[in-house]
């Protein structure tokens, strides 16, 4: 199982990245605004799960499973709002690599979606304790972190 301080660091890093996006005043009807809104919804699902595993929140198996289900429902959505190769992007916090490495970015997206699917599968039939889902949530957090490290300023 993952050490609690490391999980706290990952959660804090993800929240910090999300909050940085909050300061960006994108038009809510623009692709950038829609993408930001979806990522904020993802944080609203993943943050409580991280809180339950780090003991910041009491662990509740049914609530954890519901957050995982909601995250899975969101996992496919934001990617449609990224510009396609050759399209001019709106101002954003993406590194240039996101546009010059579409295959790598697609691989990162697929890794995230696969990790979310594994997390959701681990919650099927109920969540009895943190040990049942800790590795899967860590994989989701790592997928987020890896994508941000490679493709976000």
Give a concise summary.
The chain has six helices and no strands. Helix 1 packs antiparallel against helix 2 and helix 1 packs across helix 6. The radius of gyration is 16 Å and the shape is elongated.
Explain the overall architecture.
With 153 residues, this protein is mainly alpha-helical. The chain is 65% helix and 0% strand. The chain has six helices and no strands. It has helices at 4-22, 31-53, 61-74, 97-100, 102-123, 134-151. The chain is elongated and about 45 Å long.
Unreliable stretches:
none
Mean pLDDT: 87
C-alpha-based Rg, rounded: 16 Å
How many β-strands, per DSSP?
Answer: 0
Into which percent range does the helicity of residues fall?
A: 55-70%
Oligomer: single chain
- The backbone outline, from C-alpha atoms, is elongated
Report the order of strands and helices.
HHHHHH
**SS-derived structural category:** mainly alpha
Q: Tell me what portion of residues adopts beta-strand conformation.
A: under 5%
Main beta sheet: none
Total DSSP helices: 6
In terms of topology, how is this protein built?
Blueprint: H1 4-22, H2 31-53, H3 61-74, H4 97-100, H5 102-123, H6 134-151
Helix pairs in contact: 1-2, 1-6, 2-3, 3-5, 5-6
Properties at a glance:
153 residues; mainly alpha
């Amino acid at each position: 199982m993952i050490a609690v301080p490391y999980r706290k660091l990952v959660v804090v890093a993800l929240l910090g990245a999300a909050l940085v996006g909050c300061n960006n005043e994108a038009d809510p009807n623009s692709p950038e605004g829609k993408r930001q809104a979806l990522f904020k919804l993802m944080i609203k699902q993943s943050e409580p799960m991280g809180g339950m595993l780090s003991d910041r929140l009491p662990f509740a198996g049914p609530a954890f499973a519901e957050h995982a289900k909601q995250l899975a429902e969101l996992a496919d959505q934001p990617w449609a709002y990224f510009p396609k190769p050759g399209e001019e992007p709106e101002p954003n916090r993406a590194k240039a690599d996101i546009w010059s490495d579409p295959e790598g970015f697609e691989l990162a997206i697929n890794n995230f979606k696969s990790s979310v699917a594994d997390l959701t599968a681990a919650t099927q039939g109920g969540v009895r304790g943190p040990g049942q889902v800790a590795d899967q949530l860590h994989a989701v957090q790592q997928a987020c972190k890896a994508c941000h490290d490679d493709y976000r300023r």
